[in-house]
Amino acid sequence: MTAEACDALVFFGATGDLAYKKIFPALQAMVKRGVLDVPVIGVAKSGWGLEQFKARARDSIEKHGGLDAAAFDKLMQLLQYVDGDYADSGTFTSLRKVLGKATCPAHYLAIPPTLFGDVVKHLAQAGGAPAGSGVIVEKPFGRDLASAQTLNRILLQ
């Protein structure tokens, strides 16, 4: 089996605390190392537009990573944003449009574990997670063995 290269990175919870403290600085570091050169699409329900989202990224990196002008400028070119509720199928239709011709996106779920199942189901229904795409979940993975097994079944579908 050969792994197809990721052609987009989607991260849910893009306006949250984890994104602010860790994800944005990590994205800039990846750009700086030359290992991130695909569209980076943040998804959240904040009522923001792309410019507010980019301002949040700048503030995050200035406070938690140290701004590297060249890497930051490149990251800003890669950033896109989809605003919407994770329970609304329209959010995932919008995401599919923003993904464009991407065939192997990675989806990083920096959201509460209670939302993992719904997000993955909506991704599948909207065609936002085509065969070959990946889903990365932030821990914890369920509340106990039974809920972890249920979540695992949902993700495997």
Structural description of this entry:
- Helices cover 48% and strands 15% of the residues.
- It has helices at 17-33, 50-64, 69-78, 89-99, 116-126, 145-156, and strands spanning 8-12, 40-44, 79-83, 105-109, 134-137.
- Strands 3-2-1-4-5 form a five-stranded parallel β-sheet, with helices on both faces.
- Helix 5 links the parallel strand 4 (105-109) and strand 5 (134-137).
- Helix 1 crosses helix 2 (50-64), helix 1 packs across helix 3 (69-78) and helix 4 packs across helix 5.
- The longest helix is centred in the N-terminal third of the chain and has 17 residues, at 17-33.
Layout of helices and strands:
Blueprint lengths: L7 E5 L4 H17 L6 E5 L5 H15 L4 H10 E5 L5 H11 L5 E5 L6 H11 L7 E4 L7 H12 L1
Parallel strand pairs: 1-2, 1-4, 2-3, 4-5
Helix pairs in contact: 1-2, 1-3, 4-5
